[in-house]
Write a structure and sequence with these properties.
Belongs to the cation diffusion facilitator (CDF) transporter (TC 2.A.4) family. InterPro entries: Cation_efflux (IPR002524), Cation_efflux_CTD (IPR027470), Cation_efflux_CTD_sf (IPR036837), Cation_efflux_TM (IPR058533), Cation_efflux_TMD_sf (IPR027469), CDF_Transporter (IPR050291). The chain is mostly helical and 332 residues long. The chain folds into two domains: 207 residues, Up-down Bundle (Alpha-lytic protease prodomain-like), CATH 1.20.1510; 118 residues, Alpha-Beta Plaits (2-Layer Sandwich), CATH 3.30.70. Strands 1-2-3 form a three-stranded mixed sheet. The chain is elongated, with a radius of gyration of 27 Å. The relative contact order is 0.12.
């Protein structure tokens, strides 16, 4: 258990860095807004409030994800990360809506804006910092399979992109002196923010609804195919789910029907060990053993099988398509 908690320390460190930097950048952006009275800069500042709230909630969710399994949570607490990403996506979308409505109002009733060059410098600097922190969170999240870190990192990358667009827009306004462009740029950035909030929410809902992790399924099928044994006649009904840093896989494997319980246990243990040696992260497997049927003989490679009723014809390669279906491969 101690080893697992140590494994998750980088996640806590990464999200704490994000939280502290988000607070500093939020203050800087609001300073730029009060200096310029630019709606476009207010757009960026408002999204920074979401950054701070999301990072705070993400820190708490990662803390929960590090808690060990207990009687009430036999699969651990990692699924809270999907909820965290869902909340972050909703907050992003709400911020985008507020930005669009506020900018629409100021497009009709414009306000004087000033010191745009100084504001652009501040926003540009915050954008560069957000980009660097975003890369750091995304890489750490992928390394430790944390959807919360990935979500927060992608949010900061979105913020960096909007900041870059904002700087270009401010320079354009300064050169053309067309000040209503400020609200137009803000509306466009607000719509972009709403779209990214939707994408993040969609992914988190998929996790909460136990949507199968197809990238993980592809990796597992590839490992099984590369290391398959002649007694593993076929693998089907393979499913994979992620709960925070914990991976759960269940599948059915067809074995010779005359194997006794000790042989079945040996084969299943061999698959479990093989997955955990070759996969990137420790995985919990639930494997159901099916007995072979006469219709399996044509693709079964068991040598010297005394009960074979049909000669071996060809091996059926295991793919995502046939390994995930709930049927033996002779039904394909």
């Amino acid at each position: 258990m101690t080893a697992k908690l140590c494994h998750l320390v980088p996640q806590k460190k990464a999200i704490l860095v994000s939280l502290c930097i988000s607070v500093v950048l939020m203050l800087a952006k609001f300073g730029a807004y009060f200096m310029t009275h630019s709606n476009a800069i207010l757009t960026d500042a408002a999204e920074s409030i979401v950054n701070v709230l999301a990072s705070g909630f993400a820190f708490y969710s990662i803390y929960l994800a590090t808690l060990p399994k207990d009687e009430n949570h036999p699969y651990g607490h990692g699924k809270v990360e999907f909820f965290s990403a869902f909340v972050e996506g909703i907050l992003i979308a709400i911020a985008g809506l507020i930005i669009v409505f506020k900018s629409g109002y100021d497009l009709v009733f414009p306000r004087e804006i000033k010191q745009l060059f100084e504001g652009a410098v501040i926003i540009g600097a915050t954008g560069i910092i957000n980009m660097l922190v975003g890369f750091y969170l995304i890489n750490t999240g992928k390394k430790h399979r944390s959807i919360t870190l990935e979500a927060d990192g992608k949010h900061l990358m979105t913020d960096a992109i909007t900041s870059a667009g904002l700087v270009v827009g401010i320079i354009l306004i300064q050169l053309t002196q067309i000040f209503w462009l400020d609200s137009v740029i803000s509306i466009l950035l607000g719509l972009y923010i709403i779209y990214n909030g939707y994408k993040l929410t969609r992914r988190s809902v998929g996790g909460l609804m136990d949507e199968s992790n197809m990238e993980l399924v592809k990796d597992i099928v590839s490992i099984l195919q590369e290391n398959r044994q002649e007694s593993w006649i076929d693998v089907h009904n393979l499913r994979a789910q992620q709960y925070g840093a914990d991976l759960h896989i269940d599948c059915h494997i067809t074995l010779p029907y005359y194997y006794d319980l000790n042989q079945v246990h040996h084969e299943i243990s061999a698959i479990d060990q093989m997955i955990n040696v070759n996969a990137e992260h420790t995985t919990e497997l639930f494997i159901h053993a099916d007995p072979c049927l006469p219709a399996c003989c044509n693709y079964c490679k068991m040598k010297n099988c005394e009960v074979r009723q049909e000669a071996f014809q060809k091996e059926i390669p295991w793919t995502v398509d046939n390994a995930t279906k709930n049927q033996k491969h002779f039904d394909q």
